[in-house]
Amino acid sequence: MGFLERLFGKKAPEDTGIYFFVRCVHCQRVLHTRLDPQNQLSPRDEGGYEVHKELMDDRCFRRLTLHATFDAQRTILSAFVDGGTLIDRESWEAEKDLPRRS
Ligand SMILES: [Zn+2]
Description:
binds zinc ion, 41% strand
């Protein structure tokens, strides 16, 4: 039994966040962000939801903007990043701890 289960007598709530892994096009730094589909989405006029979230990497400090759309069930439909590209978790894991260039 885990710590939270002992504390509250039930399982910890599942993490329903959606993770995005991004590479900055300017400096190639990788970063990630988490979206909570229950709390961070805005309704769209045409139905479904959308989100626009600003990100910043820790190398060149340029601003990246994540744009994503979701259907009425908050399932992701599309995503792209202004100033960056979406990458997979494996690429992020492989590069996130590389030493920063000076
Ligand atoms: Zn950058």
